[in-house]
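Researcher: Sequence recovery benchmark, item below. Answer with residues only.
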């Protein structure tokens, strides 16, 4: 018996990298898989048929899978994804919004097309695929469904040269918190992954620093390490766990802080004067530093 027997999972961008590993592991756990992938280049140009290869891989291992090559950046693509699941398997229970591209440039060189294309695939892509699924969940009162979204430390912490990608990935974290509230009534959880993995998206960054990536690096830090928490979150055991951000990769699994007020002052009457803020703001900054230091300590890895 698998943990996802009888479930239907749609995994965007699962022709390679992290998505492929999630598709293979969900199939091993008994889910029927829609492998979606446009099959293009890292910068979002081009197309290809790599989704078919992952479908063949799943079928060869005794699983069930169907292929879809629509773009997640289009409303029609998101609707076609749901339709592929309905046509092939008669339902849909799990959506993993994993598809992604990069167009890294500092703001000085970032053209409108670099901004629009990255926002379209990541942030709008989450909307395009989630909306038809959310409507389907509500209309069919399909309980126990799951949405797993893909953010990044680029958006959650910030990363030089990724204003487009970081904005999209921070937006995805916000999108997920709202969706978690809106879908709670239907027992559908919405969680976010912040992954770290050596894939075609990240290997060039290592190579640009003059570091070679070999098979043992992939074994230690490849995309397979991101799959387990995603599969776990899709299972029955994760019912009730929603609106969380899990950071994972390279053998690590962690839960992240969500934005919260750390310290606040309130004036009984009137507006703050600028002179008062001279005194108050440093106290707020100190409280934030203390909070970060405490998170750094509690966030240190525990070897198991
Ligand atoms: N690898 C990392 O360390 C890392 C870190 C942070 C976040 N992420 C995120 O994890 C996700 C997976 O990344 P990866 O490293 O496996 O990348 P990857 O490039 O190996 O895989 C992404 C896949 O998405 C597909 N795709 C791109 N645009 C698409 C579209 N419009 N429609 C359908 N498919 C499309 C690509 O063809 C590709 O196969 C992405 O959202 C990425 O931003 C990855």
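Model:
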């Amino acid at each position: 018996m698998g943990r996802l027997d009888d479930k239907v999972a749609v995994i965007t961008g699962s022709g390679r990298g992290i998505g492929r590993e999630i598709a293979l592991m969900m199939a091993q756990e008994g889910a029927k898989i829609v492998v979606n992938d446009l099959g293009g280049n890292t910068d979002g140009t081009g197309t290809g048929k790599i989704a078919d290869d992952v479908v063949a891989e799943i079928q060869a291992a005794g699983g069930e899978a169907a292929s879809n090559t629509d773009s997640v950046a289009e409303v029609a693509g998101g609707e076609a994804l749901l339709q592929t699941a309905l046509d092939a398997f008669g339902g849909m229970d799990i959506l993993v919004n994993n598809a992604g591209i990069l167009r890294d440039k500092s703001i000085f060189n970032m053209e409108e097309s670099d901004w629009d294309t990255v926002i379209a695939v990541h942030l709008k892509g989450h909307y395009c695929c989630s909306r038809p699924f959310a409507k389907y969940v509500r209309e069919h009162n399909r309980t126990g469904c799951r949405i797993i979204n893909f953010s990044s430390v680029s958006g959650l912490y910030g990363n030089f040269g990724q204003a487009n990608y970081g904005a999209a990935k921070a937006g995805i974290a916000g999108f997920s918190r709202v969706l978690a509230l809106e879908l709670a009534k239907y027992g559908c959880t919405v969680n976010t992954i912040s992954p770290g993995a050596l894939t075609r998206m990240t290997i060039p960054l290592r190579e640009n620093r003059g570091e070679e990536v070999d098979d043992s690096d992939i074994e230690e830090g490849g995309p397979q390490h991101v799959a387990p928490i995603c599969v776990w979150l899709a299972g029955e055991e994760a019912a009730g766990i929603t609106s969380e951000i899990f950071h994972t990769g390279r053998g690590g699994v962690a839960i992240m802080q969500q934005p919260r007020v750390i310290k606040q002052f309130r004036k009984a009457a009137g507006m703050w004067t600028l002179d008062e803020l001279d005194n108050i703001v440093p106290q707020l900054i100190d409280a934030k530093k203390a909070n970060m230091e405490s998170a750094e300590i509690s966030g240190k890895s525990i070897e198991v």
